[in-house]
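One-letter codes give the sequence; each number marks local geometry. A record appears below:


***
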Amino acid sequence: MNLSSFMYWARLYKLLIQGSIRSRMQYKFNFILASVLAALIQIADFLMVAIVLNKFGAIKGWTLYEVGYLFAVMTLSKTIYRTFASDVHHLERYLVNGELDQLLIRPVPVMLALMSQNFRIMLGELLQGGFVLGWAISGMMRQGQVDWMVVPLSMFVILTGAVILFSIGLATATVGFWITRITELQNITEDAARTAAQYPLVLYPNWLKSILLFAIPVGFVNYVPSLYILRDQAGAWVLLVVALAAIICLGLSLWFWRYGLTKYQSTGS
């Protein structure tokens, strides 16, 4: 794809998103309520861990600020992924109801059409994740653990993390072309794995750690880069590994998606 083609599809995607936003903002109260509730749920999850860490000081050497950093990076990466590709996670509905057929006949790539459906502005998660990230970074700066470079590095990690989470979500959704019902699989590959990786992987046995690094690589979203950014336990090459992991995951998931589309059978409804 050359630059002019990329710019064309980017402008088209922007127009499709604008239309999706206008349709969702017809119900402003629902949008505000959903944003507030989502933020409260996220805050409650972190507060449970914060209470434990506040009492015991640290878990296997990881402080409250460090755990907060892992939690915030994962939250913000997920927020970016679900904002720009919400309905990738909800592909099951399209398969069961036959709605994917409508996207197949549109004069745009199916992935582009799917990503622009029901565009979600996840304001609650964005504010909550940003607050926890700022709190964690400022706390570690006061202690002299990190310097100002942690900010641009964190932005880089959040973006690569969003790509990795999108890739995992897309690969999981693609399995639906064979089994149709993918909710239970998503509970494992997206929800459970992401929740586990919100905390240091040193908490888990080696077999589970290996799964979270290689089978479902959510560990590359926050834990692996944090070893360098927060603890200086490895060189800057770790960030290159994370970037390569994101590129490889994206390439494999897109290839799997294109292959899965060739196996799609309409419901006929």
Q: What stands out?
A: Residues 23-262 form one domain. The chain has a mean pLDDT of 85. Residues 28-56 form the longest helix (29 residues).
